[in-house]
Amino acid sequence: MQNVHPFNFLPIERLTMANRHFWTQCAPAALAIFALSGCSGVAATGGGVASAPPPPTYPTLASGTGTLSTTGVVENFDRSAGAAVPTLRISPANIEISYNASTQTYSLSGVLSPQGARPDTASYGPAELQAAAQRQGFGYDATTVVNGVTNVSRLQLDVAIPLTYSNIGLWTFGVTRADGSQSFANAYFSYGVQTLANDMPRTGTASYNVNISGTGGAAPLGGSGVITANFGAANLSVALSPTIVFGPTRISQLGTLTGTGLISSNSFAADIAGAGYTGTARGLFYGPQASEIGGAFSFAGPGLGGPVGGAFIGKRN
Question: 198-316 domain in CATH 2.40.160.90?
Answer without folding.
Answer: yes
